[in-house]
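One example copied in:
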Amino acid sequence: MKNKVKKICLTGLMAALITVCTAFIKIPTGINSGYLHFGDSMIYIAGCILGPWAALAAAVGGALADVLAGAPQWAVATAIIKAVNAVPFILATAAYNKKKSPKIVNVTTLIMTVVSGLITIFGYLLAEGIMYSFPSALTSVPFSIVQAVGSAVIFAIVGKILDQIKIHKYL
């Protein structure tokens, strides 16, 4: 029971961190109420430490960020896209941890930043195309690429710091 309570608390904490890093540390793009943020880096971290619970933290954190950032029309699409963003890290970390001691940043998770970045790019391209138009959606792709690359860099830095303090000991 104690472990489940800890997972629930960590899931809530990560959802809050995702929300803050997305809604309040952002750069408006001026395109269809969109904005550039690096909150995805926290989704990547969540995927590495929470397992399947990370998908819930990502969905709740991402959707709540859209509501708080003044773009509630994006909340449903974001919840779906962000939950899927966590999946590559959940799977990669589970496979890695079976063979070696837990580590957030490793070759596999660094590769997953590309996979998750592509999920972001194509997920929002599809959502924006449906909500507005595909020509309009194409103008957002460069911002999605910057967001994916920036999130990967922040993930690598924060993840390395967490690995250095041996965060898995406390989870």
About this structure: The longest strand covers residues 26-28. The mean pLDDT is 93. The radius of gyration is 16 Å. DSSP finds seven helices and two strands in the chain.
